[in-house]
Amino acid sequence: MLQIIVAASGQNLPNYVDPSAYEDTLDLSLITSIRFLTSADFPPFNFKDEGGDIVGFNVELAAALCKEIGADCTLQSWPWAQLPKALEDGQGDVIIAGLNINEENGRRFEFSQSYLQLPGRFVGRNTSASAVDFDPQKLTSVIGVQRGSAHFAFIKQHFPKMILLSFDSELDVFAGIEAGTIDFGFVDGMRASFWLNQNDCCGFFGGPYFSTEYFGGGLAVAVLPAKGDILRAINIGLRRLGERGKLDELYFKWFAVGFY
């Protein structure tokens, strides 16, 4: 189970490292180079800066991984829709761009351990209630949620007594919260953090809800099945980066409003 820890800054952080697990014994000298593929249209993960360079959380994570395992690496940008085919055509060794860990992609690729989970979160106006006293089990307020979404299904399963008002999109949920037509919304925590960074009217209430069944396996590096040693090396690097706090450092740098 994913453990949540509280950093000195007051933000919650995930602890992905299982202290009881043994590190892979792969000889990292066998992995001399890794070719990363990404896209340039998903800030703050991977996007072009004013000078035209690809920057972002995933870009710096790739660089940190390569430094950690002692490999020389390159990073090439492709249009998002072309990334899977580019990997299969041998244009690169791995994709680091938030490729969805679903059944279809699971048949085509192997995935590393997750380096970022995407929890569900309650969002409301700062005047709605005290965040300290917030208890979703006792809510009598109207909760906005996107119709037909995984977040809608999660609420129906775990909070069956909640009064729900469904919307066509999460943007509509956010608009309802800001306008005060609904008290709270239950949404994707990461997308909510982007919205909250631009809207100081509102904030997170309660803690994060993690569920691979409803919200997926988070963000991971996609690798072709034939590149098993590269996958093992990346997992070694992710474990080490997690143990010494580098993943937390990147998270704080690129997400002004944390979603954990």
Topology at a glance:
Elements: E1 3-6, E2 12-15, E3 33-38, E4 41-42, E5 46-48, E6 54-55, H1 57-69, E7 72-77, H2 83-88, E8 94-95, H3 103-108, E9 110-111, E10 120-125, E11 142-146, H4 150-158, E12 163-167, H5 170-179, E13 184-188, H6 189-196, E14 202-209, H7 212-215, E15 222-223, H8 228-243, H9 246-254
Parallel strand pairs: 3-7, 3-8, 11-12, 11-13
Antiparallel strand pairs: 1-2, 4-5, 5-6, 8-15, 9-15, 10-13, 10-14
Structural class: alpha/beta
> Approximately what portion of the residues adopt beta-strand conformation?
15-25%
Helix fraction, binned, reads: 25-40%
Instruction: Report, as a whole number of angstroms, the end-to-end distance.
Output: 15 Å
Could you spell the SSE succession in H and E letters? EEEEEEHEHEHEEEHEHEHEHEHH
Q: How many DSSP helices?
A: 9
Please characterize this protein's 3D structure.
By secondary structure, this protein is an alpha/beta fold. 31% of the residues lie in helices and 24% in strands. It contains nine helices and 15 strands. The protein has helices spanning 57-69, 83-88, 103-108, 150-158, 170-179, 189-196, 212-215, 228-243, 246-254, and strands spanning 3-6, 12-15, 33-38, 41-42, 46-48, 54-55, 72-77, 94-95, 110-111, 120-125, 142-146, 163-167, 184-188, 202-209, 222-223. A five-stranded mixed sheet has the order 7-3-8-15-9. A five-stranded mixed sheet has the order 12-11-13-10-14, sandwiched between helices. A hairpin with a 3-residue loop joins strand 4 (41-42) and strand 5. Helix 1 (57-69) crosses helix 8 and helix 1 runs antiparallel to helix 9. The longest helix has 16 residues, at 228-243. Mean pLDDT is 90; it is low at 1-10.
